[in-house]
Design a protein that fits this description.
- By secondary structure, this protein is mainly beta.
- It is built from 3 helices and 12 strands; from the N terminus they run H-E-E-E-E-E-H-E-H-E-E-E-E-E-E.
- The strands form 3 sheets. Strands 3-2-6-9-10-5-4 form a 7-stranded antiparallel beta sheet.
- Strand 7 and strand 8 form a beta hairpin.
- The longest helix has 10 residues.
- The mean pLDDT is 93.
């Protein structure tokens, strides 16, 4: 056993699970929700592709998060995959001091076709309609049906690994 596993939490499976999941790198995205004056967003690494035909993705969202009821009510959300230079945005949208529309202060964004906010400068901005929400334990597994995709030419991504941001890649897509 390592020194890390010899703590008082040794028998706490939840704590051990969180340590184990830190070792799984995840792309950093901002999930945005709402319309008009009632908008919010949150930083996630729990995003994955689900199906290419038809195009669907999955995101796990804590049901206590401010984004969850807006997604459930409006049945749409944005997925903004962040570039390496967007670490401050990731921090802002994960900071509990900022609520709702405050999270967007100083951040460029536009409303998608459904009204959901999409962040400017993201590597990819996806607009989704809710296909299904599967509620399990503390979270909702949201299945998103893609309705619009905006791709940047940049290729430098932001990854979260071992409780820290890591930059990957670089350059642009050849023309």
């Amino acid at each position: 056993m390592t020194a890390q596993t010899l703590t008082r939490e040794t028998n706490d499976l939840g704590y051990q699970f969180r340590l184990a999941m830190r070792r799984l790198a995840g792309g950093v995205s901002i999930i945005t929700a709402g319309k008009g004056e009632e908008i919010t967003g949150m930083t996630v690494t729990s995003l994955t592709s689900f199906s290419a035909d038809p195009p669907r993705l999955l995101v796990n969202i804590n049901r206590q998060a401010s984004s969850f009821p807006l997604i459930a009510r409006h049945r749409s959300f944005g997925v903004n995959i962040l570039g390496a230079d967007q670490r401050e945005i990731a921090d802002r949208f994960s900071n509990g001091r900022f609520k709702g529309k405050e999270r967007f202060d100083g951040v460029a964004w536009t409303a998608g076709t459904s009204g959901v906010p999409l962040l400017g400068g993201a590597l990819t901005a996806l607009e989704c309609e809710v296909d299904e929400i599967i509620e399990r334990y503390s979270h909702g597994i949201v299945v998103g049906r893609l309705v619009n995709i905006e791709l940047s030419q940049r290729l430098s991504g932001l990854v979260y690994w071992n409780a820290a941001y890591v930059e990957i890649g670089g350059g642009t897509i050849p023309s």
